[in-house]
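Box 4.2: Ligand-aware structure prediction
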Amino acid sequence: MIHHLNCGTLHPLLAGRFVAHCLLVERADGLLLVDSGFGTADLDDRGRRLGRAFTSAMRPNLDPAETALAQVEALGFHASDVRDIALTHLDLDHAGGVSDFPNATVHVYDAELEAARNPKGMEHGRYLREQWEDARFATHAAAGEEWRGLEAVTVLADDVLLVPLPGHSRGHAGAAVRDTTSSDGGWVLHAGDAYFNAGEVQTPPSCPRILQVFQRLLAQDNAVRLANQERLRTLVADHPDVRVFSAHDASEFEALNS
Ligand SMILES: [Zn+2]
């Protein structure tokens, strides 16, 4: 069973409404969270931990009911039931919930943890160490595995993989999850911030100009980011059995959460 959760609504200037699309996956050996939105500590003190630059540009709702912890509990689970967290990357709108689940193992692509611990150039300022410095990490490196034509690395059993899609950040990755409870055994790919608008993975691609500029400004390596968007377009075109969505597109979230 896969639950789609919005763990943080944002209203970035001129860019409409963003969600922080996370997954709560009921697996045989415990709960898995994919991305974690903002955490309770981020919301305390009117979001001061997130910093003025972020809150004034991204204008987060900071609603306690949107935290992953609140939504896990609303579904009848306890924080300690969350055994694993897979993060697409460590930007502060994805990693904030980590500190609400101290028993979980946090899975990231190795290059991302290296970037967050030793930021260079524009990476300074994008990571918030307090969110994850006490986490128990398991880092993963690609080693020749393939999933639907993309390089991948198995994270858990045969149903959870990280799919490196760098460019937005140094070690950004998608998270592929197989729904073991669905009759067709369907896969979803949480593509994180590899793209921001649903039209970008269609052929031909489309994206509002403001979001194109926004993504270029946030990209750690823009050429690599664009090459990975092309790979995602190929995946969407060639593998209609895989449901692909991004972290922030509200229309994708609403389609999957209905
Ligand atoms: Zn993001």
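In the box above, the bound molecule is zinc ion. The chain has one domain: 2-257.
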